[in-house]
Design a protein that fits this description.
Blueprint (H helix, E strand, L loop, with lengths): L3 E12 L2 E11 L2 H11 L4 E7 L6 H15 L2 E3 L2 E5 L2 H10 L3 E3 L1 H13 L8 E8 L2 E4 L3 H14 L18 E3 L9 E3 L5 E4 L4 H14 L7 E7 L1
Antiparallel strand pairs: 1-2, 1-3, 2-5, 3-6, 4-5, 7-8, 7-12, 9-11, 10-11
Helix pairs in contact: 2-3, 5-6
C-alpha cells in the first residue's frame, strides 16, 4: 500500500462570508480505507490533498513535518484536527507542496496498476550501478543519475521534447522547461535539452518516471533494465 499524509475536510461552515474548515491531517497506508472510515460518520467529507514522504524520511516524520507547517497557518488545533480560516488552507497546502510530493488518488491508482502489470522489482534499499535502456548501457551512481540518464536517452532521438512535461502529478510538475526549475524540489538538467527533471523520488518512483517517459514516446518497457547493488 502507498504511504501518504492526508488532509481531509471533515466539516465546514460560512459565517458572514468567512469560510471556516475543520481539517484532519493524518497518515495512512490505505487511503481508500481511511476515507471509508471517515465517511461512516460524515458523508460530507472531502479529501483535499495527499503527500508522499521524501525518500529519506519515514511516514511518521513526514506527518510531524506537515503538522508543524499546519500550526503556522491554522486558527486553532485539537490533536490532529486543524481549523483553517478562508484562504489560509491554500497557503498551507502550497507551502507543503514545496516540501513533499503532492499526489492524487489517480496517481496512486496509476502507480498500483503499473506495479501490477509490469514486472518491476522492488528497488528499495538498493543503489543502481548500470541502466540498460533502448539497447544502450550506462554506468550510474544513484537513482537520480539513473532517472536523468534514462530520460536523456529517451529524448535524444525524438523531436517533441516538450511532450514529456505532460508526465506530471495533479498539483506538481516532474519535468519543466529551463526557467521553471525553481518549481522543482531537487531539479537536475536533462543533458542536451532545455528541460529539468525532479529527482526527489524514491528508487521505485525513479523507475516509474522512466517507465512513464518511455510510454509517452511509445517505447516498450522491456527495453529497460537496471542492475543494482545492495546498500
Amino acid at each position: 500500500m502507498r504511504e501518504v499524509v492526508y488532509a481531509i475536510r471533515i466539516s465546514h461552515l460560512e459565517y458572514s462570508g468567512l469560510k471556516i474548515m475543520d481539517i484532519k491531517i493524518g497518515k495512512s497506508t490505505d487511503i481508500e480505507n481511511t476515507l471509508r472510515q471517515y465517511s461512516r460518520g460524515n458523508r460530507d467529507i472531502e479529501l483535499l490533498d495527499m503527500w508522499t514522504p521524501n525518500p529519506d524520511k519515514t511516514l511518521s516524520t513526514a506527518e510531524r513535518g506537515v503538522h508543524a507547517v499546519a500550526e503556522r497557518y491554522a486558527y486553532d488545533k485539537q490533536s490532529e484536527k486543524f481549523v483553517f480560516l478562508q484562504g489560509a488552507y491554500q497557503e498551507f497546502a502550497e507551502t507543503v507542496n514545496m516540501l513533499l510530493r503532492n499526489v492524487s488518488r489517480e496517481d496512486l491508482a496509476a502507480e498500483s496498476t503499473s506495479s501490477e502489470f509490469t514486472d518491476v522489482d522492488d528497488y528499495t534499499g538498493t543503489t543502481p550501478s548500470v541502466i540498460k535502456i533502448l539497447g544502450e548501457m550506462h554506468d550510474v551512481d544513484s537513482w537520480a543519475d539513473a532517472l536523468t540518464v534514462g530520460v536523456a536517452t529517451i529524448l535524444r532521438d525524438v523531436d517533441d521534447h516538450e511532450r514529456i512535461t505532460e508526465v506530471d502529478g495533479r498539483t506538481r510538475s516532474y519535468f519543466v522547461e529551463e526557467g521553471r526549475q525553481s518549481d522543482l524540489f531537487k531539479p537536475r538538467q536533462i543533458p542536451d535539452t532545455n528541460l529539468y527533471v525532479e529527482t526527489n523520488f524514491s528508487a521505485n518512483d525513479c523507475v516509474r518516471k522512466i517507465e512513464q517517459a518511455m510510454a509517452k514516446y511509445g517505447y516498450d518497457r522491456a527495453e529497460l533494465e537496471i542492475f543494482t547493488e545492495e546498500v
